[in-house]
Amino acid sequence: MTSRIKTIAFALAIASSAFIGGNAAAQSNTLLNVSYDVAREFYKDYNAAFVAHYKKTTGQDVKIDQSHAGSSAQARAVADGLEADVVTMNTSTDVEFLAGAGVVAKDWAKRFPDNASPTTSTMLFLVRNGNPKGIKDWEDLIKPDVKVVVVNPKTGGNGRYAYLAAWGYVKKKGGTDAQAAEFVGKLFKNVPILARGGRDATTAFLQRSIGDVLITFESEVVSIDREFGTGKVDAVYPSISIVAENPVAIVERTVNKKGTGALAKAYLDYLYSDEGQEIAAKHALRPRSQAVLKKYAATFKPLQLFTVQELFVSLSEAQKVHFNDGGQFDKLYSAAR
To answer: For a FRET experiment, which of 90, 94, 95, 308 has its CA 20 to 30 Å from that of 79?
Structure first.
């Protein structure tokens, strides 16, 4: 090899290593947040705030990418190799699934305050403007002339919480498990389609005009008003509903590979900041901060809420009994068809 060729080869090697190093550096300042369907608009606003905060406090630029679909489908995608740096879900079973797969830490729920759930939500009903069917509470959803749009509990936390909220309604009114099963079975007889995720359910209800009522998260009201215009739907708060925690976790498999652990932690920590909690409240996600919750009291209407632990021991236990293959949901839905 002539000296000139050696010089060129050496220069190319240096350029190549610089390119690789540059890419690694760029990658280490990029995060992927894999999240559930109806959190899309919240994280769009939150990410912009975090990017500005991070630049101000560290002097570094950072890029946040988002991925949204049904919560359980997202968890499976991450388990199968989607390189999320963080997951922000709407049900702890999806994070526990990832912990069981060795993708997030076993003690993920202790890594951040409030069981690693910086916000909560609840399930309510969205009806067409003017509420033509006069829907007021869960009992109205089993009337023969009412069609209900709901997410498939097998693919999304939105659907699981809707199912558990309906079951819990009967239990909180003094009913037995047998009566709750009968009630939920009647409800699913009125379900014309099972949506894949929360946004899919909204699209079916509003754009495809399927159903008379949509069971979904409280936060979806704000998203619908922004996307479709105010006045398209009315929000109906049932007398009783469920507390839905929105858990978050660092994806250890990815951050260890990319070196983004500190950035991922800063990203999730900021959800608990005053600004993060305020943005959540503006998107109708119930903040953990009592001060912010009080400030937005008009947004979060009072209703009787129960926790998963109160009636179902845990979401993991509910998953085994109700949503695993061959469980209670499969039995009720098959009978309803």
So the answer is: 308
Cα gap 212→297, rounded to integer Å: 28
- Superfamily of domain 3-118+246-295 in the CATH hierarchy: Periplasmic binding protein-like II (3.40.190.10)
Provide the sign of the torsion angle of the four alpha carbons 196, 165, 94, 321, taken in this order: negative
Q: What is the mean pLDDT of residues 189-209?
A: 94
**In the structure, what pLDDT confidence band is assigned to residue 182 with cuts at 50, 70 and 90?**
very high
CA distance 138 to 191: 14
Residue 215 to residues 21, 25, 274, Cα–Cα distance (Å): 49, 44, 30
Structure tokens at 303: 């209703």
| pLDDT higher at 155 or 166 | 166
Mean pLDDT of 199-223: 93
Torsion, Cα 11 12 15 21, to 10 degrees, reads -120
Q: What is the pTM of this model?
A: 0.84
Cα separation, 33 vs 251, in Å, equals 10
Indicate the burial class of 223 (C-beta count within 10 angstroms; 0-12, 13-18, 19 or more): buried
Residue for token digits 């089993």? 142
| CATH topology for the 123-242+307-336 domain | D-Maltodextrin-Binding Protein; domain 2 (3.40.190)
* Residues 95, 98, 102, 104, CA torsion sign: negative
What is the SS3 assignment for 152? coil
Mean pLDDT across the chain: 91
Q: What is the DSSP letter of 25?
A: H
Neighbours of 79 (CB within 10 A): 17
pLDDT digits (tens, 9 = 90+) for 219-231: 888 888 888 888 8
